[in-house]
Design goal:
The structure holds 2 protein chains of 2 kinds. Chain A is α+β, with helices and mostly antiparallel strands. Helix content of chain A is 24%, strand content 34%. In chain A, strands 1-3-4-5-2 form a 5-stranded antiparallel sheet, covered by helices on one side. By secondary structure, chain B is an alpha+beta fold. Chain B has 3 helices and 5 strands; from the N terminus they run H-E-H-H-E-E-E-E. Chain B has a 5-stranded antiparallel sheet with strand order 1-3-4-5-2. The chains are: A alpha+beta, B alpha+beta.
Amino acid sequence: MKELAVGQEIPPLVKEPITRIQLVQYAGASGDFNTIHVIEEEARAKGLNGVIAHGMLSMGFLGQLLTDWIGQNGDLLQLQVRFRSQVFPGDVVTCRGIIRSIAERDNGAEIDLEIWEENQKQTKVITGIAKVWVPHT
Amino acid sequence: MKLGTDLFGLESDSGGGLMAGKNLEVVQQYVGVQSPVVWFEVEKGAIRKFADAIGDPNPLYRDDEFARRSRHGGIIAPPTFATTFREGLRIEIPNLIGPRLHGEQLFTYQRPLKAGDKLALQTRVAEVKEKKSSSGYLTFIVYETEGHDEAGSLVYTERRTAVMVSDQ
């Protein structure tokens, strides 16, 4: 891994537009069959503007942001998020992270990051923190 | 209160002689209640389908040979895969009022989940908190799940916070 510094932004992850079929796919893969994610009428009946993405799908994107960054020799130690805003089919979300602290540990660096995911309107849909360990190269 | 409102900008905690919300009273009786211990196997096919749904092409989740040569020695699961473990872990709390939202989620990992792992999971109602706002009560219910492997070692901890919104 390149030189690390507090305040540095990690490479962002831009996801493909969310699709309805992806929500069906995620429902099946995760076992979360809450109808607000897959059935339009049910979502509207619950006061939503249509089906919304699973919060855990969006959290999965943040997981990918971090595992892409740390690579196969790094460890994700902690991932914590707060769900703030809804994600809809067609939304394009971007995951981002900023290094907040770096500590030496076990011939590597333990790093705390502030992470978030924003939609195409730059609304933060999820915010959170993560802790990773990466080996010295 | 409308679904999707930012629930966390609210600063005023309950207390100071205010009457507690009905949901808080209900959930307080469930704090400490545990699910049974349920065993789950981390299946390779389930990992690939889960990674596909997220759109994560990482070869550690799908390429046997690549994963075998990695320091993990085999296929591992994406960080949020533990959310697939549901059956039998749910703790029903009857008589809750209002819509229920997923507010927060935390995973703490001792190591990644690996294909072939057999994990013993148990969920408990860990905590309940309440905030009062002008429009009613927000009740935060924290469910904590621990996953141990066959050797008895802790593999991960999950804390899931559900938020109930009610005007009572």
